[in-house]
Amino acid sequence: QEPVILEGGLASVLPDFQEQWSLPVQGTVMDIEITRDGHYVYYVSDDGAEFRLYKATLDGAPVWMREWKKEKPEYYVEGLKVSDTGNLVCLNRVDGWDENSRTKVYDGEGNQLFYKTRGHGSYYPSPGGNYLSYQATNNYFPLLIYTTNGNPIELKDKSFLQGGRTMHRFVGNDRLLVYEDFMGQGYLYLISVPDGRLLWRYQFDHTLWLIDFNKRNCAFNDQYIALQGTTQPSDIYLFDYAGNLKWRSSDYVSND
Fold this sequence. Notes:
Elements: H1 7-13, E1 28-34, E2 40-46, E3 50-57, E4 62-69, E5 75-82, E6 88-95, E7 100-107, E8 112-119, E9 121-125, E10 131-136, E11 144-147, E12 152-153, E13 165-171, E14 175-182, E15 185-191, E16 198-203, E17 218-220, E18 224-228, E19 236-240, E20 245-248
Antiparallel strand pairs: 1-2, 2-3, 3-4, 5-6, 6-7, 7-8, 9-10, 10-11, 11-12, 13-14, 14-15, 15-16, 17-18, 18-19, 19-20
């Protein structure tokens, strides 16, 4: 049995930490996600021959488990992504040799909705679990949006794009936030899905050179969207959902 949480590591950060429950896992836990609504935990394991995807309640009660044999021994889990309520689950796997991602998508009941193989990248569920987006690792892939059965959604108008390096992610109410680098400048767009309407656009005076929109450089809640660039000076920007820049950190913090 592989512990989901290492007590020594967590206790050093949270000295009052107490174990609430534990569940048996076959193999090594590769990734774990807790739904934003706080009801479920999903985790995936790899024992060298098989992958297993588990769902449990936050009280530690097992809900279901799905398992399948690895197509090749060198396949590994790249990431587990879940919607806010856990009604849409994406398990991204990659072959270390040919760098093709293989993604299984499940609903909250454990039914497989579809399976896709494409170039190295990951699928991400929208917060409401109504759509998925595909983001290539090199960030040069076009905007790809899908329904939960794997059918592509064509954005009606892409003329606002400059033709540069793009990345995107879903934010509140299943809207799509797109960042683009082009000719030394950065552009931020908010798009309505599924009709593809451009809701607003913001142009930065320099490139932010974001690294990973879905894991870092971007955070959001029901009211605001925050971005942090990686170029120097590294500003933090806060927007509301109407596209208004509420503040940026350099307005308040000296770079000296």
